[in-house]
Amino acid sequence: MSGIETGFNNVLLVNDEAKKCHLKEIVPVGVCEDKQVGVLRSKISIIIQTKQIYKVWLGRSRQQAEFDKQLEENKGKKINSVMGVPRFFQLVTALEMAVKRDDPFADYIFYKIHQAINFERQEVSAQIEKLDEYIKDRIPAGMSMTKNHSISPVKIDLAINTKLGFLLVYLTLEIDELVRMILLAKQCSLISVSNASDATFKASKRIRRVMSLVHQFKYSGVTRDDISVNNARAQVAYELMSTIELPEEFLKATIRSPLAPAILSRVDVI
Length: 270
Prior knowledge:
Layout: H1 3-20, E1 44-48, H2 51-58, H3 62-70, H4 85-100, H5 104-138, E2 154-158, H6 163-187, H7 193-212, H8 224-229, H9 232-240, H10 248-251
Antiparallel strand pairs: 1-2
Helix pairs in contact: 4-5, 4-6, 5-6, 5-7, 6-7
């Protein structure tokens, strides 16, 4: 009897004995049950240190705007709702879904928002470096100074499923750092109160300016194929987004943001 045959008979014998003893059969090493690996999850949170940037994060809902109008100190003032970062997450998620469905308008606006965030982050980084040098150059040699921190910062747990959402979070935290430095310089009498107020307002406006771009997108369900034949859906899209001049490169999808999601109906486009 060959070695293979002997080994096979031994396996049968083991299995028979296991059945007699009401034991489970031994699964050979390397044999796996048909199971699927679960999706990956990560806990992400951020900390905002300044009241100014936390106010930008929250925004002002329509209900809050109506309530504020009724306050005595606000009589006669024009108070509007203001989009906060969580609302931006919702709108940009819908934008990214339209990108996946081959909407060239959505693809173009995604690109514009990405470019705008990159620009603002570069500007903020340069301002932080410049202000840091300004502060160091003006404090005496015998004086040491640490960065300022909030005694009660706000911790926010994030559940983001959008790429542009993450980029806006990075910009928000970087501007939060810039505002902290501005307030530190004001506290130490290195800049005037009015200059600090103006710089803080301009820094906060960078976030709002980026978020406002998402309002340019209006859902129409249009695709690049619709645009190519200029059907009714294409005409509706042009009407809804009449202020947008769609570049030819985005009609052909030859230019896209490197972070743009894959177009599900066009496997040839990366």
